Amino acid sequence: MTAFTLHTVETAPEAAKAQLAGIEKAWTFIPNLHRTLAESPVTLQAYDALFGLVGQSSFTPAEQQVAFLAINVANECEYCTAGHSVLAKMAGVAPDIIAALRESAPVADARLEALRHFVEQVVAERGFAGDDAVDAFLAAGFTRAQVLEVVLIVATKTISNYVNHLTHTPLDGFMAQTKWTAPRNRAHA
Description:
By secondary structure, the chain is an all-alpha fold. Helix content is 62%, strand content 0%. It has a single domain, classed as AhpD-like (Up-down Bundle), CATH 1.20.1290.10. It has nine helices and no strands. Helix 3 runs antiparallel to helix 9 and helix 4 crosses helix 9. The mean pLDDT is 97.
């Protein structure tokens, strides 16, 4: 297995130092994902920019976290599922909804269920979810802009999920209580 460096501001390539310092200032620590991404300053910059743009979307913070979790689970990303389980709780997502999302199961809230289902269709079909899926999403009260914002969220999580798969990013300490094992790894757990 190829080892990837968990960079600090001091060890990161020059072009990533300021970005890591800004992340540390904003979050009070540097998540291991970002420390790994620092190996490629342009990839770190892209992920950080996309993540910030999701925060400017028309989805509520709770809806953003529902979408993030649905994508993380669909992509079987253990790191991001653990991390976004904490962020979802902080955004006010109910524990039963978080638990359902972690198992790719339907959620009781009809609006959040429509979001979860649509996001999973977009991921599974690589964007070819079809007109019926879009129409059902719109019928649930979402907008055409939010159809496109789902693509933004998918793009953001594709970067982090794939990086974590390729680099085996270790969980951060704050994720200890929300560790999640992907279905493909459950037999080995």
